[in-house]
Specification:
Elements: E1 3-6, E2 8-11, E3 14-21, H1 39-64, H2 70-84, H3 86-99, H4 103-119, H5 124-128, H6 130-145, E4 172-176, H7 181-184, E5 192-197, H8 205-212, E6 217-219, H9 224-227, E7 233-237, E8 242-245, H10 249-270, E9 286-291, H11 297-302, E10 308-312, H12 327-340, E11 346-349, H13 382-387, H14 389-402, E12 408-412, H15 418-437, E13 446-451, H16 454-458, H17 460-466, E14 469-472, H18 474-482, H19 500-515, E15 519-522, H20 533-539, E16 543-546, H21 551-559, H22 569-575, H23 579-591
Parallel strand pairs: 3-4, 4-5, 5-6, 9-10, 9-16, 10-11, 11-12, 12-13, 13-14, 14-15
Antiparallel strand pairs: 1-8, 2-6, 3-7, 7-8
Helix pairs in contact: 1-2, 1-6, 2-6, 3-4, 4-6, 12-14, 14-15, 19-22, 22-23
Length: about 600
């Protein structure tokens, strides 16, 4: 019988596949697929770990006998019996042999399967034996963790990463309590068609990366890990925010038809790639791409981007166990991005770490992210950079050096205080002076500020005296304006990009920047949302930056727009009691004038 789980739609489209469950939070292990030639080695690792745990338990029995209650000794016997149970061992090996799971993942998967069976038992005594299975599994995982990690793929040594091999051609979808943004990056080129998480919000960075990868995704789907079993057929409806578990053949056919329709629409939009983004009455609009890693520039160019409007440099710092990239490594990465864009501008944002993008090493004092009471308001972004001058100087030097190879713009995140402006300008000048003194080639960069804190929007004239351009980060601007943690699904319904205060700050920022003769763009999620295209154009915006996958849809919208027809739309939306309803009604009225884009 099929089950529906409801969550938040964060990345459009339909994904259909077998469920792959990562371990729950009680068992935090690495999850990755192994290649066929590695299967025997994983089974051997599992056998060695089992023998090690058996030996440890037998030794413990010998040490405690005589002065320990017989019941406790009997429990140790039960654990040894479980470890030597051939049915249990065979079932665990099957995860490795048939699904190509690594040994740790196989243990966690079998643990999940067994605990479900225990939970369904009517006998209370038998249900309580679940704890014995959990303890045995944890001992096995601890023994595996003591194995030589040099054999493990480097990207999997930290966190709960997911690899890219697969045992067969069966489509797979990932179901987890949560997935970190760094782990999400491993979806690129992976076997997973979509993902479901139990926590998260529409604009959490995990959701943003999912959209950038064009993978259907639903977050905030509470109880998903409990209701979905390993290998269940699952449909992810990324448009409606619905997860269908064990769907009927009729429902499967319906969603497969929707999948085919989606592919046809993508193919149609791809034909717009070579066309400039020009409105019906001749207004040229700049469409830029947001990227996370240098290799993403290929997708940006393929989508027809006119440059990179946001290079999220923090992804170079993640999943490194606190070993941050040095100046040379960063320089090579930035240089690769600049050169691959073939003379088009690249905007590199300095590291924006903190909140839902923690590092293993969060500060100069090596404080852990989990110890921060409110990470969204803590030591993050430019605050973190200014608190670690050596790290910040290394990044600034790398960016300045990369500017030799093409046009580079340097963007500073979450800046909000006059003292931060002064400190940032001083840091840039110091890095430039030291490069010059050392005779190291470096280029000129335009310096920009992100407007993502209300304080920055309200004191914009002062910002414009010091910066060459501004970029509006709508995700955080909404979060801080409305006091909503955008990663918290409990308050996700209050996260509202149509809020009058948010729209007023965006409109005033665009107008003031243009009046001062400074470039202004929007690089947050609103830039890639077609519901806002005409509204942002009516505010005066002429530069949008978004994930490459969103570019064709926004370009189509622009090609069908006549700027003259948008006169008055900004005032209508800003004055409305319900801006969303007013904006959509106005755009619908204009829709009759739209001409086909392709």
């Amino acid at each position: 019988m099929s089950v529906q789980v409801f969550g938040l739609p964060v990345s459009r489209g339909v994904a259909i596949g077998r469920a792959v469950l990562v371990a729950s939070s009680r068992v935090d292990v690495a999850h990755y697929f192994v290649e066929p030639h590695q299967i025997r080695g994983e089974i051997t690792r599992l056998a060695v770990a089992r023998d090690l745990v058996c030996s440890e338990l037998e030794l413990l029995k010998q040490e405690v006998q005589g002065d320990t209650p017989a019941e406790l000794v009997a429990l140790l016997d039960v654990h040894v019996m479980l470890l030597n149970d051939e049915v249990l061992a065979t079932a665990t090996r099957q995860w490795i042999e048939e699904r190509h799971y690594n040994a740790e993942w196989a243990v966690a998967a079998q643990l999940d399967a067994l605990t479900r069976q225990f939970d369904e038992m009517e006998d209370e005594y038998l249900r309580e034996r679940k704890a014995d299975v959990e303890q045995v599994a944890e001992r096995l995982l601890q023994a595996l963790a003591r194995a030589d990690k040099a054999c493990m793929p480097p990207i999997m040594r930290h966190g709960t990463g997911v690899g890219s091999a697969q045992g067969d051609a069966t489509p797979l979808v990932l179901v987890a309590n949560d997935i970190s943004p760094a782990d999400m990056m491993q979806f690129k080129g992976s076997v997973f068609r979509g993902f479901v998480t139990e926590v998260g919000g529409r604009t959490s960075h995990t959701a943003i990366v999912a959209r950038s990868l064009d993978i259907p995704a639903v977050v905030g789907a509470r109880e998903a890990s409990r209701l979905v079993r390993q290998d269940d057929w699952v449909i992810i409806d990324g448009d409606a925010g619905i997860v269908i578990v064990d769907p009927s053949p009729m429902v499967l056919d319906e969603y497969r038809f929707r999948q085919r329709q989606g592919h046809l629409e993508r193919d149609r939009l791809a034909r717009l790639r070579g066309r400039p983004a020009v409105t019906l009455d001749g207004h040229r609009i700049q469409l830029l791409a947001n990227i996370e890693l240098p290799g993403d520039t290929a997708a940006a160019l393929d989508a027809g981007a006119e440059g990179v409007g946001l290079f999220r440099s923090e992804f170079l710092f993640m999943n490194r166990a606190g070993e941050l990239p040095d100046e040379q490594e960063q320089y090579e990465a930035y240089r690769a991005a600049v050169e691959s864009m073939r003379g088009l501008p690249v905007t590199i944002r300095t590291i924006d770490i903190g909140a839902d993008k923690p590092l293993d090493r969060m500060s100069v004092n090596e404080l852990k992210h989990d110890h921060t009471l409110n990470p969204a308001l803590g030591l993050r972004a430019i605050r973190w950079s200014l608190a670690d001058p050596d790290m910040f100087e290394g990044q600034l030097r790398a960016i300045l050096r990369a500017a030799v190879h093409g046009p580079v713009r340097l963007l500073v995140p979450m800046i909000s205080h006059p003292s931060e402006i002064r400190a940032t300008l001083d840091a840039v000048e110091r890095a430039r002076a030291r490069l010059a003194a050392e005779g190291i080639p470096h280029g000129v960069v335009a310096l920009g500020a992100m407007i993502e804190v209300p304080a920055a929007a309200l004191m914009l004239p002062r910002f414009l005296r010091h910066f060459d351009f501004v970029s509006i980060g709508t995700n955080d601007l909404i979060q801080y304006t409305l006091a909503i943690d955008r990663a918290d699904e409990a308050v996700a319904h209050l996260y509202d990009p149509w809020h009058p205060a948010v729209l007023a700050l965006i409109a005033s920022t665009i107008r003031m920047a243009l009046a001062a003769g400074k470039d202004v763009s929007v690089c947050g999620e609103m830039a890639g949302d077609p519901d806002f295209t005409e509204v942002l154009l009516s505010f005066g915006l002429r530069s949008f930056s978004m994930h490459p996958t969103q570019l064709p849809t926004i370009k189509q919208r622009i090609l069908r727009t006549e700027m003259a027809a948008l006169a008055g739309l900004a005032d209508t939306v800003l004055a409305a009691e319900d801006p969303q309803q007013a904006g959509r009604a106005s755009v619908r009225r204009l829709g009759g004038q739209a001409a086909p884009a392709a």
